[in-house]
Structures are given as structure tokens and as C-alpha cells.
Amino acid sequence: MAFVTRFAPSPTGRLHRGHAFSALSAWQAAREVGGRFVLRMEDIDPTRCRPEFEAAIIEDLTWLGLDWDGPVRRQSKHLADFSAVIDDLSGRGLLYRCFRTRKDILDAIGDAPHGPVEAARPGPHPADEEAALLTEGRPFAWRLSLDRARQTLGEAVWEALAFVEEGRGPGGENGPVKVRPETAGDVVLARKDAGTAYHVAVTHDDALQCVTHVIRGEDLFEATHVQVLIQTLMGWPTPVYRHHRLLLGPDGKRYAKRDRSVTLAELRAGGLGAEALRAELGF
Q1: Which H helix or E strand runs over 217?
Q2: CB-based burial of residue 158 (10 Å sphere; 0-12 exposed, 13-18 middle, 19+ buried)?
Q3: What DSSP character marks residue 12?
Q4: pLDDT of residue 121
Q5: Residues 187 and 144 sit within 8 Å (Cβ to Cβ)
Q6: Distance separating alpha carbons of residues 10 and 44, to the nearest angstrom
Q7: Torsion angle of alpha carbons 232, 238, 242, 247, nearest 10°?
Q8: pLDDT tens digits for 165-215?
Q9: 9 near 273, Cβ under 8 Å?
Q10: pLDDT tens digit string along 95-110?
Q11: Nearest Cα residue to 279 out of 41, 65, 106
């Protein structure tokens, strides 16, 4: 079987050491076995993603010495593909409209007698209430109903949902991992003002691009549970997953854009060479 993996950044800022480690991990894994390494821009957020950040990502990866197979896939150019997934799931009764705000959900979590997991599954509105809210033009999100998903798949398939972890999860998970989609509740898969959510776009494109191995940070381990469920509902293959450790900065925190971690461009401007950075990161 061909080995295909990918690096799929969101162009919402410049890359830092953590991104370099993840990209190099995937690239090296593919090149060691003669596989394919594809580059994808997960740019479905029009408010934060910018062309200049995409150009900077490509500049940084090229500087690192990475190459990729085939053209760069930009998710913003394929929104109709993701809308088709939402239409499919909705048409099968697996989604429901949720008009509750984030504050409504948080308040419900605080009041819930069974804890946050139960509160994260608000369930559909009564039909008359939903009709009135639609008439008012109130914004809503499409949530995946775990109850309907379980009924659709059947108990045997539901209980057998699993994925293979070749790296490690945050709890040291390795090998076959039982899928627990209930820990995320009824996740949002689309909003009225945004045609798709990350879970839909990433699973669709992994299937489309024939990705066999997903290599990414362990912070995304929990997302795998939801994504395997979507893959199963859509009849898509489930890749093998390798979640790697997260790099930590001098302050003990993981590198993150929101914390203004030192970027690769800043390291380059400071005189650090690509070969030295690769050696520092263990490549």
C-alpha cells in the first residue's frame, strides 16, 4: 500500500519551531519509505487566513529543504465539496439545527446535573420552536447528533469504532484505540455564516488525497475520535495516526501562534541556518 501523508497548516500567521518539527516529521516519514508528501492549506476561516501568510509558509518550508508532491490544495477553493458533505449528513437525519449561542451552551454546562458531556449534547429544538427561529432568521449551527449516528451505524459498528495510533496520545496511548466520540458531544460541523467546520474539511480532504498516515501533534489526539466517526459515516477510510510530542519553549509552554512564539522568519533573520535548525529538531 502506498504511503501518503500531509502537512496541513492554517495560514493565520508565520510558522514557528513547532510547525517545523511537525512538517519535518511528516516529510521524513514519507521520504524514508518512498511515499508521497502533500501540502494542504486549511484556509476555511476567511477572517484569519491571509494570502501573505500562505506565501510565508511556502517560503519557510522551502527554506527548511522540504518539497511536496503535486499542487498545494487550498480548501477555500473547494467549499462546495464540504457543503456537499453537510447536505449528505443532513439529508440522512444525522445533523440538527442548533440556535443556542456559545453562552447558552456554557450556561447549560454549569447547570447540567450530569456534567459537561451531557450538556454538550443539547439536542434539536422542538419543531415549532425551530420553525419560529428560522422565520426570524436567527443564525444557527449544524450539530452532529451522536444519538442518530449511533442508531445509523448500529451497536456492533459503534462499539467497534477504533483507530491505530503509531505515535502517542496525551495519555501515552499507542496501538489500537477505542473511539469515544461522546467525549466531544454533538460537535458543530457547520454554521449558517460558515459553510464547514474543521472536522468536515480535514476528513474530506484526507479521503480525497488518499492520505494513509496522519502525522500531527498530540494536541489533536482527541479530535481523532470525532474524525473517525465522520469517516465511518461517510464511508471513507480511516488513516493510521501518529501523534507526536509537542515542542516546548524556554518558558515550558508549547509553541503557539497566539503566544507570539519566535517565528522561522525571525530565526532566519537572526542568522540561524536551516541545517542547524533541522539538527536542533533532531532531523
Answers
A1: strand 213-217
A2: middle
A3: S
A4: 84
A5: yes
A6: 8
A7: -50
A8: 999 999 999 999 999 999 889 999 998 767 799 999 999 999 999 999 999
A9: no
A10: 999 998 877 777 766 6
A11: 65
